[in-house]
Task: inverse folding
């Protein structure tokens, strides 16, 4: 299969901030691809360049073989963008918003109205169709926004943080939608700050940090580099943390992960059985454990493993090697 | 599948999302009319948007006629013959600021990101917004004329003279709006569009002969005010409404409008196409 998106050495600077510092991506057609990274990593800038909203300072990007700067119009004919903030008119009703987009895409009034009704039904918004978007809940707003991107089915759909700020139920709805859209053959490029979201939706991921791609691969490959799963412990008192660390170190070696909360500990596990060993050792050492869980490593932990710093606390400029 | 219960069955979505054929992109004209339709819908849903084009004209006409009328022309009824064509100019010129504010709102809310990523004629969103604004300017103009007639304004040029004057004011307002479009793209919030624009608008409208004759001003001020395009517009508006010769003034207003559009529109388009 051919490449839907290809970028090489994308650089973008805003004032003195270098948002992108040489981004190289190859995204296969017909896949869901995730850009994973913390706030300010360069995810949104990358997507905005690919959707022709920004021009790169250097480097190049092609979307379905068209250069995003020279053939911007060709690219626009094949992609849709749902930005981080609702890119619909809040004063207008759901129907009016979709009819507006339909008309601008070249549908007749009749076809635009029909398409709008179909999509509102498909997105569970039929009852809210005649209401102004400003009265919609967060989840409904996100759905109308995605619907606006599907008035004409794009070959590539860009979704910038599609579930940020949504409750778990709305999040599930968006995930299900993304899966269905991708199943119909549209390539989806989404950005996210959540590892589990990327894990559930994306076949491949690029981890972006400070304007660079620091890792690329399937989520399985990425997690393998961090450890299959992680164990999280909460102690009843911070005083026992040192003892606990010492004990865990005996069982797991270098498996401890950085955690900022003094009551908590996290450790990388090679297999879930190790969790039982850790608990046994802690009990013998009379360390009181308030709660514990075993799950996927968090974005912070992935970042720590890949970069040596956590997502929220990047190493200050001067401290870098 | 309780979480996705609002979504229809997979079979139904398949039918909806399977539609691959993309229509031919809309023509320039149909994009502009569609976006003008959007501007009309906004007025329908948020009638408060018409507040500035209804209350401001009525207030201005009443205030200035009765406050200045007696002092400047002997009686309000006499003064309004001079003032009304100028109040029309002042009100519509003031309202042009809302073009920039509306645009700035669209940008900050992310709506322009959607427009700019659609394969449509790029100037359409700007022209569509301007078309909607021309409607608002027309509403304001009509209200001022009705107010004027009630207060005793009697245009000697008849209905045709009045319509020509309004048309000329709309041409100038259209041109001026391009400047606020630029301001709307430069600053961060709709409020700062208002503040920035008023720095220009206050001298532009008050340093004119809207309220008093040029001959009553000191010589140095006459030199400035006499070159203000708003003075030409007020003169032309008076001339047309009262059926007096206004050819030269009309010509200068058209020249000024053309110059503003030729300079500001390409700059605005460039900024729009660029990025934020």
Result:
């Amino acid at each position: 299969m051919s490449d839907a998106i290809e970028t090489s050495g994308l650089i973008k600077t805003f004032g003195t901030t270098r948002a992108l510092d040489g981004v190289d991506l190859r995204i296969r057609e017909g896949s869901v691809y995730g850009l994973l990274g913390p706030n300010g990593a360069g995810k949104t800038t990358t997507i905005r360049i690919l959707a022709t909203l920004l021009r790169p300072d250097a480097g190049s990007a092609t979307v379905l073989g068209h250069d995003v700067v020279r053939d911007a119009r060709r690219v626009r004919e094949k992609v849709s963008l749902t930005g981080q903030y609702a890119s619909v008119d809040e004063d207008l009703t759901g129907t009016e918003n979709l009819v507006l987009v339909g008309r601008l895409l070249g549908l007749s009034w009749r076809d635009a109205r029909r398409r709008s009704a179909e999509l509102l039904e498909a997105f569970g918004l039929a009852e809210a169709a005649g209401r102004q978007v400003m009265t919609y809940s967060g989840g409904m707003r996100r759905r109308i926004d995605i619907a606006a991107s599907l008035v004409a089915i794009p070959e590539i759909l860009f979704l910038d943080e599609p579930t940020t700020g949504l409750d778990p139920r709305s999040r599930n709805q968006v995930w299900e939608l993304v899966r269905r859209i991708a199943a119909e053959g549209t390539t989806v490029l989404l950005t996210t700050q959540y590892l589990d979201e990327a894990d559930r939706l994306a076949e491949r991921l690029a981890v972006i940090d400070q304007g660079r791609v620091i890792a690329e691969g399937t989520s399985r490959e990425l997690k393998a580099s961090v450890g299959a799963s992680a164990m999280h412990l909460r102690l009843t008192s911070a005083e026992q943390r040192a003892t606990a660390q010492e004990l865990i170190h005996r069982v797991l070696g270098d498996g401890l992960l950085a955690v900022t909360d003094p009551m908590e500990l996290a450790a990388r596990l090679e297999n879930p059985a190790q969790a039982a060993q850790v608990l046994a050792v802690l009990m013998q050492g009379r360390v009181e454990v308030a709660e514990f869980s075993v799950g996927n490593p968090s974005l912070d932990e992935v970042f720590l493993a890949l970069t040596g710093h956590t997502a929220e606390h990047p190493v200050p400029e001067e401290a870098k090697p | 599948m309780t979480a996705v219960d609002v979504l229809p069955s997979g079979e139904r979505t398949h039918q909806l999302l399977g539609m691959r054929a993309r229509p031919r992109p809309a023509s320039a004209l149909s994009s502009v009319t569609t976006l003008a339709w959007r501007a009309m819908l906004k007025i329908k849903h948020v009638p408060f948007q018409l507040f500035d084009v209804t209350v401001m004209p009525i207030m201005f006409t009443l205030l200035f006629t009765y406050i200045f009328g007696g002092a400047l022309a002997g009686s309000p009824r006499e003064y309004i013959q001079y003032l009304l064509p100028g109040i029309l100019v002042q009100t519509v010129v003031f309202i042009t600021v809302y073009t920039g504010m509306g645009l700035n709102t669209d940008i900050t809310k992310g709506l322009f990101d959607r427009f700019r990523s659609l394969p449509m004629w790029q100037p359409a969103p700007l022209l569509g917004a301007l078309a909607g604004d021309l409607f608002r300017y027309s509403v304001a103009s009509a209200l001022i004329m009705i107010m004027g007639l009630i207060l005793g304004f009697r245009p000697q040029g008849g209905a045709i003279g009045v319509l020509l004057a309004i048309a000329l004011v709309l041409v100038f307002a259209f041109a001026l709006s391009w400047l606020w479009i630029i301001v709307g793209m430069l600053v961060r919030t709709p409020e700062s569009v208002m503040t920035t624009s008023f720095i220009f608008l206050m001298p532009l409208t008050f340093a004119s002969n809207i309220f008093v004759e040029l001959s009553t001003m000191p010589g140095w001020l006459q030199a400035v005010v006499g070159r203000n395009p708003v003075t030409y517009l007020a003169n032309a508006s008076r001339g047309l409404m009262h059926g007096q010769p206004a050819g030269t003034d009309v010509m200068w207003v058209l020249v000024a409008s053309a110059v503003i559009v030729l300079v500001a529109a390409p700059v605005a388009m460039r900024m729009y196409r660029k990025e934020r």
Remarks:
- The two ends of chain B are 41 Å apart (CA to CA).
- Chain B has a mean pLDDT of 84.
- The longest helix of chain B spans residues 158-186.
